[in-house]
Amino acid sequence: MASTPIAKELLDVLVCPDTREKLSLASDAVLAKLNEGIAAGKVRNRGGRGVGAPIEAGLVRPDGKVLFPVHDGIPNLLPDEGIALEGD
Predict the structure, then answer these.
(1) Per residue, what are the HEC states of the chain?
(2) Number of domains in the chain
């Protein structure tokens, strides 16, 4: 990531809508692996809808099981928009 996709002040207060745990920025490796799955048409969000566009940035729970996408610097923290990562 060249720059932080969201302001640090905002990142400091964001929590998972399910667990209320602090979220952190997804690593480039997590995003690359997720985007490979998206390109192959294998990724669905927790609401069951296919994810068609690559994810530029995301916020991940401490357990690493769910990613919430960030689009244009705006995090989408709706539970159904979360994307289960491998192992969930």
Answers:
(1) CCCCCCCHHHHCCCECCCCCCECEECCHHHHHHHHHHHHCCCCECCCCCECCCCCCEEEECCCCCEEEEEECCEECCCHHHCEECCCC
(2) 1
Domain that holds residue 30: 1-52
In a domain, 27, yes or no: yes
Nearest to 26 by CA among 39, 13, 35: 35
Reading the chain (88 residues) residue by residue, the pLDDT tens digits are: 445 678 889 999 999 999 999 999 999 999 999 999 999 999 999 999 999 999 999 999 999 999 999 998 899 999 999 999 975 4
